Amino acid sequence: MVGGLARFRRSEHMLLPASLGAVGCSVALPLVQVALAFGYYGSDLRTGLWSLAATTVYLPLHLRHVWYAAHGARPPFGRWTLAAMAVVILVATPLAGAMWVRTYTALIVSAMLVLPGPWSYVLYAAVVVAVAPVSHALGTPWNTAPWLVFSVLCGSMALLLLVWLPAALARLRTAREALAQQAVAQERSRIDAELRHTVGAALESIADRGHRLGGRLALGKTATEPGEPAELAEELTELSADSRRALAETRRSVRGYRQPSLRAELETTAALLSAAGIATRLDLPRSGMPGTIAQPSRTALRAAITRLLRNHAVRNCTITVTSLSGRVRLELRADEAAEIIEVAS
Q1: What average pLDDT is seen over the chain?
Q2: CA nearest 144: which of 229, 36, 277?
Q3: Is the pLDDT of residue 89 over 60?
Q4: How far apart are the first and last CA of the chain?
Q5: Prediction pTM value
Q6: Is 249 in contact with 199 (CB distance < 8 Å)?
């Protein structure tokens, strides 16, 4: 199933363009605001210069927040840089013209990206509510206030969507890598446990018996006890037979590792579906389940899981393994639909 995740790798190619798009829009809106500060009605060279100076100071901090958030991470010292950004924007409010309140868009976007949920929502609402009275205090008529509030709301929502898209892609990549590592760890644990209980136990027995035989030969008992050479020869013959059996078991185990484990495949499938928001339950028998799964059965299972992932209406899935008349089958029941897969090991 980890190999089947390669079908979703196309989303990774969108991560960098989406991040650059979010940063580009975050740069474009402040530049438009600076242009308005120079040329909007009631503005002059002084307001334009104040707007340009304040934008030069706060914009790098804002872009830093956007870049980290677009990659699914919170920026280091994000609260301090957010506080510095807020101070610059608020100090420049009475100096950069009546349209400067539109810069609050960048402030609330950074707050949503840096602060945890409850506090970011509170600050978002507080800033939006403050847009109308602040703009009126700067000389904007009350009939213009709704347009400014609407502008801040739409601008902030658009920027947040542009940032959250690459952030979702980054989280998807992280989840994919975690699933791959989990599958590798599970397979290594299975192989280690199987070797320890089969080949390991046989090798320990051979080593112990060989040590006892070596000790008896070193004490020279073969020269003092009649019949001892025959007994030693018999034990050596048994030791040789055990060694051959251990070698055969090792070869059998190595051949089995070329096929993936059915249990590991199903557990990885359940983890993938759960990561996609589908509540998944595994119903496995205590005995009678094959240790491996052949390539055709694995291909059919992956195809079924791909169909489930593409069906956004699916919310629950149950995977049941049953053994009927010596034949093992998988039943995937997603909501009301069910699909049967015959398992070949």
Answers
A1: 76
A2: 36
A3: yes
A4: 16
A5: 0.55
A6: yes
Q: Note the pLDDT tens digit of each residue in 114-124.
A: 888 788 888 88
75 DSSP assignment: P
**Spatial distance between the Cα atoms of 79 and 241, rounded to a whole number of angstroms:** 71
User: What is the spatial distance between Cα 161 and Cα 170, in angstroms, rounded to a whole number?
Assistant: 14
Average pLDDT (44-73) is 87
279-283 and 316-324: which strand pairing?
Answer: parallel
**For residue 18, what pLDDT band results from cuts at 50, 70 and 90?**
confident
Residue type, 94: P
Q: Which residues are CB-neighbours of 265 under 8 A, at least 6 positions away?
A: 1, 293, 298, 301
The CA dihedral of 158, 73, 115, 106, to the nearest 10 degrees, is -30
Strand order through the sheet with 316-324: 279-283, 316-324, 327-334, 337-342
Rounded to whole angstroms, the Cα distance separating 86 from 79 reads: 10
Copy the structure tokens of residue 97. Answer: 């013209």
What pLDDT is attached to residue 257?
A: 57
- Whether residue 226 is predicted with pLDDT greater than 80 in this model: the reply is no
Between CA 248 and CA 195 the distance in angstroms is 13
Q: CA torsion 95→99→102→103, rounded to 10°?
A: -30
- 335: amino acid identity, one letter: D
Report the amino acid identity of residue 224.
T
Amino acid sitting at position 242: D
Token pair for 141:
């008529």
- pLDDT score, position 217: 64
| pLDDT computed for residue 253 by the predictor | 65
Can you tell me the distance from the alpha carbon of 226 to that of 243, in angstroms, rounded to the nearest whole number?
A: 28
d(CA 300, CA 306) in angstroms, rounded, equals: 10
Reading the block at residue 179, the tokens are 């699933």
